[in-house]
Design goal:
Helix Hairpins, about 10% strand, mainly alpha, nuclease
Length: about 100
């Protein structure tokens, strides 16, 4: 395991769970920590109490990442064109 992954795994146990422990994390750091948690849980050699604690932390990180992605999507807009072909404004980007 790399030093970064090892640090992310340790942080997953020591960092507080819930929104207050994730509010200041940028997306990339939250995702990295979440990947470390998944890796540890998949290995299956974590005691039950610790597994529950890091699973809960993982859930908080997942919600945080989803919120950040939704905010980013809301900021993306498309340029609308008028009848003359010139930019007339913006509208929400329809990604569906």
């Amino acid at each position: 395991m790399s030093a970064a992954r090892s640090e992310a795994s340790r942080a997953a146990v020591s960092a507080p769970a819930g929104p207050t422990g994730t509010a200041d994390l940028p997306f990339e750091k939250a995702l990295e920590e979440l990947e470390g948690i998944v890796q540890r849980l998949e290995q299956g050699n974590v005691p039950l109490d610790e597994s529950v604690a890091i699973y809960e932390r993982g859930e908080a990180l997942k919600r945080h990442c989803e919120t950040l992605l939704q905010r980013a999507e809301a900021r993306i807009q498309r340029i609308t064109l008028g009848a003359d072909g010139r930019a007339a404004g913006t509208a929400p980007l329809d990604v569906a």
